[in-house]
């Protein structure tokens, strides 16, 4: 369990975190979303005791991280995949961490295998690792002591599609065994697929939070047909809210079955019919952070 309670953080006159409160619960993956500079890393650093809070508090397993006995055994951190000593091999990084946290060294090989690094790669110096390999090493490091809590800042960054899927399964498995996962990401679709709960942050403030289901509810149906104009008129006659999608097709405020029935009555052939969830989070994310997004500011 991670509890963040009315957290504030200022750098001079700049407010990086403004009264941020949320929880990441055991048995669940909590996705932490926000545009560049929103405050995600700052919040995670405060949670991990690396940056002092200006006000409010952050606790992990009921206590401030710094007061946990042997915190490395309880909390796996991946905050900066490039922070590992570049001159050490991956295996040395993990062995040193095992010694420091009192973990059986045999875990090192297990973790190397688990994250998909070959033995040869594990014996290579970290300075010669690709970004994806650094992330894999960082995940191995975070999991080494078999912690109850994972705090991961952009762990999918640099992973290839197979790696992203692997990490998704790994995090789901970790949570299903009762673990707590807090992960930040810009990959909205990825968060949508992996997270049970979502916290959206913009300009240092929490702008939305809830279960993924709650946040995506009511995101409607996306439909494409051979005659969108006719379908649109038929939907409007049926008093259903409908708007065009920039990339083609229509977004309809009704479930897929209702849309399919209207299309059937109108004699329109459908080419695509799906729940709007997939684009829902992106729309929500862009809407909620519109005032803080750089592109919005520049426009
Ligand atoms: N040590 C610092 N001194 C001054 N400002 C800082 C410091 N650390 C972070 N900031 C500022 O706080 C804000 C939040 O930064 P943070 O790194 O938490 O954002 P983020 O949401 O993780 O962004 P990104 O997605 O780009 O990594 C930014 O405007 C950043 O410039």
Automatic annotation (TrEMBL):
ABC transporter domain location is 2-228
PROSITE patterns per record: ABC_TRANSPORTER_2
Offer an example of a GO molecular function term for this protein.
ATP binding
Q: Known InterPro entries for this protein?
A: AAA+_ATPase, ABC_transporter-like_ATP-bd, P-loop_NTPase
Highest taxon, organism lineage: Bacteria
Its keywords, alphabetically, are:
ATP-binding, Nucleotide-binding, Transport
Q: Which SMART domains match?
A: AAA
The cross-references to Gene3D superfamilies, in alphabetical order and at most eight, read:
P-loop containing nucleotide triphosphate hydrolases
The UniProt similarity line reads: Belongs to the ABC transporter superfamily.
The name this protein goes by in its record: ATP-binding cassette domain-containing protein
